[in-house]
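ARCHIVE CARD
CATEGORY: sequence design from structure
SOURCE FIELD: tokenized fold
FIELD CONTENT:
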């Protein structure tokens, strides 16, 4: 992949490994569904941030991912 995985729930054994949702977003994008790929990517960020915060039994201090998702959804037709 052009950029490393944003999946931080567990360590990948190789640099080129991506999370399932990251792969799905790239495939969706290749089929011309750019907007849907972007939304899936943003949902992935929301999931990752909330999962990690929950796993550490902490509140999410900064919900930047959710803010980005809401902003993108507000601009969908």
């Amino acid at each position: 992949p052009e950029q490393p995985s944003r999946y931080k729930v567990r360590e990948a054994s190789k640099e080129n490994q991506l999370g399932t949702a990251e792969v799905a977003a790239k495939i969706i994008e290749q089929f011309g569904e750019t907007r849907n790929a972007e939304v899936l990517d943003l949902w992935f960020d929301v999931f990752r941030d909330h999962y990690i915060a929950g796993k550490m039994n902490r509140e999410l201090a900064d919900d930047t991912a959710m803010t980005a998702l809401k902003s993108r959804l507000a601009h969908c037709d």
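CARD ANNOTATION: Residues 20-74 form one domain. The chain has one domain: 20-74.
SHELF: design records, drawer C
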